[in-house]
Design goal:
Strand order of the largest sheet: 3-2-1-4-5-6
Largest sheet: 6 strands, parallel
Distance between the termini: 36 Å
Number of strands: 14
Strand content: 15-25%
Structural class: alpha/beta
CATH architecture of the largest domain: Alpha-Beta Complex
Shape: globular
Number of helices: 11
Bound molecules: ligand NAX
CATH topology of the largest domain: L-2-Hydroxyisocaproate Dehydrogenase, Chain A, domain 2
Order of helices and strands: EHEHEHEHEHEHEEEEEHHHHEEEH
CATH superfamily of the largest domain: Lactate dehydrogenase/glycoside hydrolase, family 4, C-terminal
Amino acid sequence: MATTITITGAGGQIGYALLFRIAAGDMLGPDEKVRLRLLEIPQGMGAAEGAALELQDGAFELLEHVEVTDDPAVAFDGANAALLVGARPRGPGMERADLLAANAGIFGPQGTAIGANAADDVRVVVVGNPANTNALIAASAADGVPAERFTALTRLDENRARAQLAQTLGAPVGGIRRVPIWGNHSATQFPDISHATIDGRPVVDALSTQVGDVRAWQEQTFIPRVAKRGAEIIQVRGSSSVASAANATIEHMRDWMLGTDDWTSAGVVSHGEYGVPEGLVCSFPVRSIDGAWQIVEGLELDEWARTRIDASVAELADERDAVRALGVL
Ligand code: NAX
């Protein structure tokens, strides 16, 4: 049996960077056949159909079937994995409430279609921004699908944080572990190095010889660099992050389905862990065990970390309240 994977916004930039890597086995490994369902809006159909032709020309041995559609019911039919990439970007003069409303109009119906059509084991990762709240909206519309199956991508933020640490320490990124992102995928996110290790030693110890005052470096350099990396990429490249976002999306879904041997980060539904209000889709340190994300519990958080996490969680609660005020949840 092949795995059916739905990609929304498949005609866009991240979609184009995702499709060929999935077809090549980067997400589910070299032995798992895949069936791809590409969902677009009518304006994006040509780009998605063109990508489907190129997928054909890749002659990927793992790729069993590709279907391009603008009908969510068709796109999510039998889906085991759904990568929700297509979203409404913030236009000029658009207020946050307008942005949330426009995206509720996308993620609500997609959640409904997932509830009605996807496979029983469907797993959903939302990439399209505002990712956490879009995941919350889709989950609440998906009848019969546990909220735990809806997640938001914060793996790119974690990868950015690990890469910044590696660069600062002049060490290979592979030795750096346990750098969770807490909160929202936004400028308020908290990349947490307090439990991070480099080759098994505390990162904080290694950093103090490099940067002196580690807390000041976190506040003035590290956190702003990670949280604003998307804007930096736009400034340098002239366009937003694409391949790195696709890479993180593949890693998120691969780890979720195949398991992790250590912590990573994902936006998952809160059951009240660390005082985060129940129901919010918040980024936590997580492990993937037996196909399910589990929040790493019992970590000590000092007052400074707590304040930062609380600020990002307050933003998530504000977004949820704004969506509720629109009558969506
Ligand atoms: P593009 O504008 O290149 O592509 C988006 C595609 O989605 C377009 O082809 C559009 O036609 C399609 N689309 C719009 N509404 C749709 C709908 N209702 N159903 C199906 N398709 C629909 O954007 P791209 O660069 O690919 O970025 C996609 C999203 O990823 C954006 O919302 C962006 O903000 C978000 N990102 C999230 C990141 C994360 O870490 N969570 C990082 C990268 C990226 O910024």
